[in-house]
């Protein structure tokens, strides 16, 4: 007997499932695509334990009769193409006829479908084997439930991530679809918690429903047609720029795609406006004739091949560049980050973050930015930063070393220190003079205080007059919970407030009121981009807090504040560079001055 044999269909389907079904999010993607292709106007998605335990997708589309429901779980059975020529004019999202049999081969699948209200049929398939097929009462449309994913392929199940991670991936995929098809209503529930409840509408209203009404104020419309190509959607102005990827959405004829070249076309249009490592928000739908694009490149159907990719690149870049021409609309709103989460809760409740607390109705208050808590805090709140006698002595020793043989009296620094342009501090030393940047000096002080606080009992927290509500995206919220202990260490006092929302009851000392949400978002973005809670991330938390809380260039300091700043600076471990590497102290020697004045 020869070595080569025909594999049984069950094994063939399991092999195919390895390409099509990578994780629970792949199943949600395939089922939602089928619902959209069926003409559904309402799609409901329910998952349990990251989709590993259960996934259900219901729609009100065209439904299937008895014969179609039986055939749809056969390999390479599809209603979307019939001839080789159809592959060059694909208008549907699905077309390969592999998804349903692949899913059924590695899970327990129950499908219920009806073409009208008179009734339908139900079938159940486990591991590729049909358990039953029978008539059943059903509304028009299709409902498919998938349970016990990879129950018969333990090696694949073992490599699935934690349920929280799988839920985040599913949520990101669902967001792709809800933005690609705002004309369809979506309900999405994860572990009995509602994530999205979205009515059909325009793309602008869909973005507002997902991100909030203030988000839409920073949108720039994009609409351009060149020959047979079109680009339509929205891009964000500079208020929506983030330091991590994740809010860039690209669709081709309503199909979510990944294409680095087209992403670079958008980034290229922003080139003169963004710093390196910054990413703009965009939701763009490309209209390209079906015969000029090949979507049959990979089973996931996320990758496509254009007949003339550089032509498409030019169309995208040109459309985005045109939208960015309105400079006044493109520049960030001066008060945007203070207003974007302007839902305040009027109660005086305080306490730690309660992850099980039920959601409450928010009461909107107008933004009222409180005055800075401590412009004189360098002196008045000195003890809060741990300026011990030992540190004061070390500071004086460092200053004495720079002063040379001059005896340092307690009043010396006050008598011989000046503030230049409310930005730099200047004082005399034996070799000439030293110039200190007041902002980065204070930043170094606060950075070391925050680092020490995270290692010990933490910084004190000051209660805010109006608790601020911060609303996050679902996957952001789940990652946010992981960094709450570190935020509380530097002085934030937080609690859950309804769906994916956080109330900020207390903030770190010396911080400007009104910017606390931006600090949290910066820290969260960093964590989501690095996925690491190591020492570098803790340094970033401390550095972000220090940068936002430090006195600014332009702040007028009193003599006592100047002396306090120098005492604290030279009591730090590293008084010569800020946490970001910028110099704090510059020494201008007498020899340099003599050279400048041609005295040598």
Name the descriptors.
Heat Shock Protein 90, single chain, alpha+beta, Ribosomal Protein S8, Chain: A, domain 1, 4 domains, five-stranded mixed sheet, Ribosomal Protein S5, domain 2, eight-stranded mixed sheet
Can you summarize this structure?
The protein has 600 residues and is of the alpha+beta class. The protein is built from 21 helices and 22 strands.
What would your notes on this structure say?
With 600 residues, this protein is an alpha+beta fold. It has four domains: 193 residues, Heat Shock Protein 90 (2-Layer Sandwich); 128 residues, Ribosomal Protein S5, domain 2, CATH 3.30.230.10; 117 residues, MutL, C-terminal domain, regulatory subdomain (Ribosomal Protein S8, Chain: A, domain 1, 2-Layer Sandwich), CATH 3.30.1370; 111 residues, MutL, C-terminal domain, dimerisation subdomain (formyl-coa transferase, domain 3). Helices cover 36% and strands 22% of the residues. The strands form five sheets. Strands 5-4-3-6-2-1-7-8 form an eight-stranded mixed beta sheet. Helix 14 packs across helix 20 and helix 17 crosses helix 18.
CATH architecture of the largest domain: 2-Layer Sandwich
Compute the number of strand runs: 22
Instruction: Note the beta-strand portion.
Output: 15-25%
CATH class of the largest domain: Alpha Beta
- What is the CA-based Rg, rounded? 30 Å
Q: Reading side by side through the largest sheet, how are the strands ordered?
A: 5-4-3-6-2-1-7-8
The largest pleated sheet is described as: 8 strands, mixed
Could you name the CATH homologous superfamily of the largest domain? Histidine kinase-like ATPase, C-terminal domain
Shape: elongated
C-alpha end-to-end distance:
101 Å
Mean pLDDT: 79
CATH-defined topology of the largest domain: Heat Shock Protein 90
Q: Based on helices, strands and strand pairing, what is the structural class?
A: alpha+beta
Q: Which ranges are low-confidence, i.e. pLDDT below 50, for 5 or more consecutive residues?
A: 334-387, 405-414
- Helical percentage: 25-40%
Overall tally of structural domains: 4
Number of helices: 21
């Amino acid at each position: 007997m020869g070595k080569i044999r025909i594999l049984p269909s069950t094994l063939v389907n399991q092999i195919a499932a390895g390409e099509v079904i990578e994780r629970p999010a792949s199943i949600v993607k395939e089922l939602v695509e089928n619902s959209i292709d069926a003409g559904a106007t309402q799609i409901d998605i329910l998952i349990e334990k990251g989709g590993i335990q259960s996934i259900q997708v219901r729609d009100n589309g065209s439904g299937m009769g008895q014969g179609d429901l039986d055939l749809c779980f056969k390999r390479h059975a599809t209603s979307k193409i019939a001839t080789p020529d159809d592959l060059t004019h694909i208008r549907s999202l699905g077309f390969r006829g592999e998804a349903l049999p692949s899913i059924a081969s590695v899970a327990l699948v129950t499908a219920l479908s009806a073409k009208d209200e008179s009734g339908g049929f139900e079938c159940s398939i486990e591991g590729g084997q049909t358990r039953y097929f029978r008539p059943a009462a059903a509304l028009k449309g299709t409902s498919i439930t998938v349970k016990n994913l990879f129950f018969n392929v333990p090696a694949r199940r073992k490599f699935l991530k934690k349920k929280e991670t799988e839920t985040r991936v599913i949520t990101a995929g669902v967001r792709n679809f809800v933005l690609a098809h705002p004309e369809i209503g979506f309900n999405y529930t994860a572990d009995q918690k509602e994530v999205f409840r979205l009515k059909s509408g325009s793309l602008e209203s869909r973005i507002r429903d997902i991100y909030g009404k203030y988000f839409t104020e920073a949108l720039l419309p994009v609409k351009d047609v060149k020959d047979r190509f079109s680009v339509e959607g929205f891009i964000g102005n500079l208020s929506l720029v983030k330091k991590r990827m994740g809010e860039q959405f690209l669709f081709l004829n309503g199909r979510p795609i990944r294409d680095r070249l087209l992403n670079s076309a958008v980034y290229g249009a922003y080139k003169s406006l963004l710093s390196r490592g910054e990413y703009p928000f965009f939701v763009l739908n490309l209209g390209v004739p079906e015969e000029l694009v090949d979507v049959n490149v990979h089973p996931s159907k996320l990758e496509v091949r254009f007949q003339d990719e550089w032509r498409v690149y030019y169309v995208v870049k040109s459309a985005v560049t045109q939208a960015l021409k309105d400079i006044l609309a493109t520049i960030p709103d001066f008060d945007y980050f203070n207003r974007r989460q302007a839902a305040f809760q009027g109660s005086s409740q305080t306490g730690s973050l309660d992850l099980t607390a039920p959601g409450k109705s928010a009461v909107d208050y107008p933004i009222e930015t409180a005055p800075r808590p401590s412009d004189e805090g360098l002196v008045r709140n000195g003890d809060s930063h741990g300026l011990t006698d030992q540190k004061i002595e070390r500071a004086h020793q460092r200053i004495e070393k720079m002063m040379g043989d001059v005896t340092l009296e307690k009043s010396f620094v006050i008598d011989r220190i000046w503030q230049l342009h409310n930005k730099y501090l200047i004082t005399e030393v034996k070799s000439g003079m030293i110039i200190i940047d007041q902002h980065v000096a204070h930043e170094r002080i606060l950075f070391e205080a925050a680092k020490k606080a995270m290692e010990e009992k933490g910084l004190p927290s000051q209660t805010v007059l109006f608790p601020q509500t911060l609303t996050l995206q679902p996957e952001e919220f789940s990652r946010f919970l992981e960094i709450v202990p570190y935020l509380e260490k530097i002085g934030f006092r937080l609690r859950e407030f309804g769906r994916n929302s956080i109330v900020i009851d207390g903030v770190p000392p010396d911080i400007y009121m009104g910017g606390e949400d931006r600090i949290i978002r910066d820290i969260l973005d960093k964590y989501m981009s690095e996925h690491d809670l190591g020492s570098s991330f803790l340094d970033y938390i401390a550095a972000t807090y220090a940068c936002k809380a430090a006195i600014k260039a332009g702040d007028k300091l009193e003599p006592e504040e100047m002396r306090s700043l120098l005492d604290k600076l030279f009591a730090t471990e590293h008084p010569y560079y800020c946490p970001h590497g910028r110099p704090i102290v510059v020494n201008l020697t007498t020899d340099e001055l003599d050279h400048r004045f041609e005295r040598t």
